[in-house]
Design goal:
This protein is α/β, with parallel strands linked by helices and 287 residues long. 50% of the residues lie in helices and 14% in strands. Helix 8 crosses helix 11. The N and C termini lie far apart (54 Å).
């Protein structure tokens, strides 16, 4: 029997990525979209929208391709309409981790998120090397969690997300709690902030007179070899002088106790701030 999938937010940015990967697959697709721009995106692909209630009631699996801040509200409208035994797939752990999904024991909750194409890879095609987000040309890993539901549903969920995030490098099965540590804590609170710190360091060198192209080439080249050494790709250590400079830098700009960001209460706080940005200044002042 063919699995029917309802894709909520099918014409949005992420929804279009998923639509493109699933529209010619083995699933019976129902596309849900209400925005004018989203409907135009579907029309450009030769597709039409189905009313949300109709699509959800007919679906074996529902994918929420909506912003994190909307998952609680959308799931509250969707979950009561789901068939018993149907699966809800969310693309980010935030709402699931914070308990924003409705309580209903007879449906499955599945969480999946892309790792994005890795810095170190064997892609040779120019299009794949430029596919930084993944899901089009470059292979990427994904992380998946069966939050609730029968064990047999894990395989169905993985099969669906393998297609919607394709091409796939590998799949990691983890828990929702572990996924929340990876994002936002590891990848965004620390990783993205570190990336922008590096950009600001380059901009400061330029502000102080270094030619922009020289600073950019120097920074990006050094980032590559430094990542290669740090993650065991290069096969050689940092030089003794570099180790001293690293320790000097850590003492100057890295706050002691940063590891606490992985503590469950702070992971929850980070997600709460992401979903309620107005709290940021007050919480930041406490830490």
């Amino acid at each position: 029997m063919t699995t029917t999938i309802a894709l909520i937010g099918a014409g949005g940015k992420m929804g279009c990525r998923i639509t493109d990967n699933l529209k010619n697959g083995a699933y019976a697709m129902k596309y849900v979209e209400i925005s004018e721009r989203g409907l135009e995106n579907l029309n450009a692909r030769g597709l039409s929208a189905t009313p949300q209630d109709e699509a959800v009631q007919a679906a074996d699996a529902i994918i929420l391709a909506v912003p994190d801040v909307a998952i609680g509200q959308v799931s509250a409208a969707v979950v009561p309409l789901m068939k018993a035994g149907a699966m809800l797939i969310v693309l980010d752990p935030a709402a699931a981790y914070m308990g924003h999904l409705p309580e209903r024991d007879d449906v499955t909750y599945y969480v999946a998120h892309p790792c994005h194409p890795p810095v170190f890879n064997d892609e040779t095609e120019p299009a794949a090397r430029k596919d930084y987000f993944g899901g089009i040309h470059a292979r990427q890993a994904i992380v998946c969690a069966l939050m609730q539901g029968p064990e047999a549903h894990y395989g169905l969920g993985e099969a669906i997300v393998r297609e919607m995030y394709a091409p796939i490098l590998r799949v990691h099965r983890i828990t929702v709690e572990q996924m929340a540590m990876l994002e936002p804590t590891m990848a965004e609170t620390i990783g993205a902030a570190s990336a922008m710190f590096l950009r600001q360091a380059m901009d400061e060198a330029v502000r102080r007179g270094v030619p922009q192209e020289a600073a950019r080439d120097f920074m990006l080249g050094h980032i590559q070899i430094e990542l290669a050494i740090a993650f065991g790709e290069a096969g050689n250590p940092f030089s003794d002088a570099c180790l001293v400079a690293m320790e000097y830098g850590r003492r100057y700009w890295l706050k002691d106790g940063w590891e606490r960001l992985f503590d469950p209460e702070l992971v929850r706080e980070q997600i709460d701030v992401m979903l309620h940005p107005e709290k940021l200044d007050a919480i930041a002042g406490q830490n």
